[in-house]
Amino acid sequence: MDVQGGEELSLNMANKGPSYGMSREVQSKIEKKYDEELEERLVEWIVVQCGPDVGRPDRGRLGFQVWLKNGVILSKLVNSLYPDGSKPVKVPENPPSMVFKQMEQVAQFLKAAEDYGVTKTDMFQTVDLFEGKDMAAVQRTLMALGSLAVTKNDGHYRGDPNWFMKYVATVCMRKVLDWANPLVKAQEHKREFTESQLQEGKHVIGLQMGSNRGASQAGMTGYGRPRQIIS
User: Fold this and answer.
1) How far apart are CA 61 and CA 13, in angstroms?
2) Domain segments of the chain: what residues?
3) Which of 13, 1, 117 is nearest to 56 (CA)?
4) Cα 222 → chain centroid
5) pLDDT digit string (tens) for 57-89?
6) Which CATH class is domain 3-180?
7) N or C: which end of the chain has fewer CB within 10 A?
8) How far is residue 185's CA from residue 167's CA, in Å, rounded to a whole number?
9) Nearest to 49 by CA among 132, 158, 125
10) How far is Cα 159 from Cα 149, in angstroms, rounded to an integer?
11) Which GO CC terms are listed, alphabetically (predicted)?
């Protein structure tokens, strides 16, 4: 890691501060979701998609964060999925050094990714990347973006499509399970009745409604006819 990257990393950790109690427990669970094998796949794709000028990060969650943190590589990535003349994000010649400029660059990437078709449920928040709060969410967004590029098949995707096939299959399976889950729950609550129980139910319903023995139409008037009142 170069000196500037080390300074950024130290500054980032200083800005976050330590986590305590429940916050620390939650953060620990989030960090465990981060996939280092997936990180390698994403780095390979980004380098192939954007070109070798983007360099490579130090391995690991923090190295990946520092690499993407200023938003420039992310902006180049989403721009590479669009044809020339219609790039959605303006990329500065010099990487931004001011915090609000970096966050603004990341926000522009997120807007372009959403316009490209990434769903809001697959989008990370700016602080997830900038403060390293949820780098697994950053991975999820990039996987969604890559899988979309593969399925669009418009000639702008570069790299091995198989990198994202597992993710696409997982998303499809999740949708199938979401669709099937209400049916499974309905079957779990289905009740079986014996013939004697059904007959007993009919008897109970009859008693609840009361007897109609001796009922007649006497005193009833036809629909629409005025009732005659004799004083």
Assistant:
1) 13
2) 3-180
3) 1
4) 64
5) 999 999 999 999 999 999 999 999 999 999 999
6) mainly alpha
7) C
8) 27
9) 158
10) 11
11) cytoplasm
